[in-house]
Design goal:
By secondary structure, the chain is an alpha/beta fold. The chain folds into two domains: about 130 residues, 3-Layer(aba) Sandwich (NADH Oxidase), CATH 3.40.109; about 70 residues, putative nitroreductase (tm1586), domain 2 (NADH Oxidase), CATH 3.40.109. Helix content is about 35%, strand content about 20%. The chain is built from seven helices and eight strands; from the N terminus they run ααβαβαββαβαββαβ. The strands form two sheets. It has a four-stranded antiparallel β-sheet. It has a four-stranded mixed β-sheet with strand order 5-6-7-8. Helix 2 packs antiparallel against helix 4 and helix 6 crosses helix 7.
């Protein structure tokens, strides 16, 4: 499975099998994390065979066998938050290509895990493992509700928007809007405290659907 195909099959999964992550899978995920950390100056970290990602009633009634997760941490800045989102999308889809399922937690993670973040600020976690199910497709807005192209819409732009609608966003609000003119594309997002992380995720999905070589991002 390639990343573009993984976009279609990746859905939120909260209940997992007891099966451990194999050593070669752990190595591949760590390599992907290390590469993203190096390129984008982040501090993401994989934790395996630990049961403390979530807590309380939510853990008891909504999850099962959550034992592997990636801490999403970095210095607190708008720029790095967007990169956290961008790299989270990359890692979740990469995990899907390895036969894993994932769940992005933005708020309800156990704050205890912040002690593992090497002094950096934690902005969420990605749970991963072998799901008991493959998850379900989320409700989605229509293309015209989240995008506008000035002129005849090229195929690459349409595919980019369709890909963006597959992306996980906080509370599934899909609070983004993408515009295009020629080969210039802009993306905006307004989802409260999750705005910049969601924007990074949306940009990654759009790039994957549209093809990076077909357009250029333009600042709003």
């Amino acid at each position: 499975m390639e990343l573009r195909e993984a976009m279609i099959y990746r859905h939120t999964v909260r209940k997992y099998k007891r099966k451990k992550l194999e050593a070669d899978i752990v190595e591949k995920i760590n390599d992907r994390i290390d590469l993203n950390n190096l390129i984008y100056n982040l501090n993401m970290k994989l934790m395996t065979q630990k049961k403390d990602a979530v807590k309380g009633l939510f853990k008891t009634f909504c999850t099962k066998n959550v034992k592997n997760y990636i801490i999403l941490s970095c210095d607190d800045s708008k720029d790095l938050l967007e990169k956290i989102g961008y790299c989270s999308a990359d890692i979740m889809l990469y995990a899907q290509t390895l036969g894993l399922n994932t769940w992005f937690i933005g708020e309800t993670y156990n704050k205890k895990i912040e002690t593992y973040a090497d002094g950096k600020k934690v902005f969420g976690v990605i749970v991963l493992g072998y799901g008991k199910t493959k998850g379900k497709k989320h409700k989605s807005k229509k293309v015209e509700e989240v995008s506008f192209y000035d002129g005849i819409t090229p195929g690459w732009f349409a595919e980019g928007v369709k890909a963006s609608l597959l992306a996980p966003t906080a509370l599934n609000k899909q609070a983004f809007f993408i515009t295009g003119k020629g080969t210039d594309v802009t993306a905006i997002c307004n989802n409260g405290k999750y705005t910049n992380i969601d924007l990074g995720i949306i940009k990654y999905y759009f790039e994957l659907g549209a093809g990076k070589d077909n357009f250029s991002w333009r600042a709003v």
